Amino acid sequence: MKIFLLIADGLGDRPSKLLNDMTPLEAANKPNLNKMAYHGMVGLIDPIKPGIIPGSDTSHLNYLGYDPMKYYTGRGPFEALGTGLKLEPGDIAFRANFATVDGEFVVRDRRAGRIRKDTDKLANSLNMEIDGVKIMFKEGTEHRGALVLRGKDLSPEVSENDPHHEGLKVKEVIPLKKEAEMTARILNEFFIRSHEILNSHPVNENRVKLGEPPANAILFRGGGIVPDIPKFRDLHGFSGGFVAAVALVSGICTLAGLKNYTPPGVTGSLDTNIEAKLNAGLDALKNEDFVIVNVKGTDIAGHDGDPVAKMKFIERIDQAIGKVLLNRMDDVLFCFTGDHSTPATYKEHSSDPVPILIYYKGSREDRIENFGESQCRLGTLRLRGNDLMEVLKSHAGKAEKFGA
């Protein structure tokens, strides 16, 4: 069988009083997921291992079979690759946000009102050179972007300037090792210059006139050097593709050698066209043996502290599954899970294990009636992230016997 892995970013959650003490997944009207849970196998997965709070980068690496303890060098290189920037050996890459700061550099909005229009115009104005170091900035989805430094004697061993909360001042970048002193100085200079450019940019002048927060600062974090990882085909013995509108996931998959089947027009937001993503995933399986499809809306609602929006997005996922997938999986193994938990009551990633579902014709039946956190603990599966590909390959008939 071919393998269709659907990742709902930040899927796991905790009970909410707004949902009668149920999680968004438990409260959602999801007849198609419940049907597959009844006739398939369910359980819980720790994306890294118990007690570890996963990032989306480390969990996706682990799910695809790449030990993050070995291959993870920081989120920045994946963000940069996902935006389409071409990295060279020695480049230092950071994930970045357009943000809104006041005259004292206090952060008023870390996402600049989730800006979506004209970020390419803003990004194009930020390419510059400082002391012989070439600086490249590329927009991603919404407020996200990537910052890359190219030059001699650079080091990723620097602190970040992102305070991670509104109401705090942008941090000064500090070298964590002596060899990073020049890198820290250039990053601090870039922040000042980019603020001056963005503050007077026509895009932001127009946003202010419209009463919208200006995207007048760049917050960056997660610096690293692009890792050297084996290709997915070499690791698993078969081809693969991906569908993802988020630069981070796109970058990881691109680095792994997966082919991009993402259709135009889809987003990494709550308003994304889920059906288009699932159809693109099925199209990928015409040519590939494996596809991973990422939808981001569950994570956004979790970070926003909105369990109702998260529940409704899960319902949209279920509707799309029923319309696109359910009757087209004769030779497909379907797996649905999240890359981590983002409880809406907590608004951040947590170490809570994530519900997981594996369904294919002829699979064992756990006969769970409501696919959610509480009932999934009664199911067959109890996995760590590095187990996932091996389990999927085994059930899809793609694994070899160990021993005689």
Basic shape: globular
The residue ranges in which pLDDT falls below 50 over 5 or more consecutive positions are none
Structure class? alpha/beta
Task: Please state the CA-atom Rg, rounded to the nearest Å.
Answer: 22 Å
Describe the sheet with the most strands: 8 strands, mixed
Overall CATH architecture of the largest domain: 3-Layer(aba) Sandwich
Q: SSE order, as H and E?
A: EHHEHHHEEHEEEHHEHEHEHEHHEEHEH
Distance between the termini: 24 Å
CATH class of the largest domain: Alpha Beta
Q: For the record, what is the CATH homologous superfamily label of the largest domain?
A: Alkaline Phosphatase, subunit A
Strand neighbour order, sheet with most strands: 10-9-11-1-12-13-2-14
Structural topology:
Layout: E1 2-8, H1 24-27, H2 31-39, E2 41-46, H3 56-63, H4 68-71, H5 76-83, E3 92-101, E4 107-109, H6 119-124, E5 128-130, E6 133-139, E7 144-150, H7 181-199, H8 202-209, E8 217-224, H9 232-236, E9 241-243, H10 247-255, E10 259-260, H11 274-284, E11 290-295, H12 297-303, H13 307-325, E12 332-337, E13 354-359, H14 373-376, E14 381-384, H15 388-395
Parallel strand pairs: 1-11, 1-12, 2-14, 9-10, 9-11
Antiparallel strand pairs: 2-13, 3-4, 3-7, 3-8, 5-6, 6-7, 12-13
Helix pairs in contact: 5-10, 11-13, 12-13
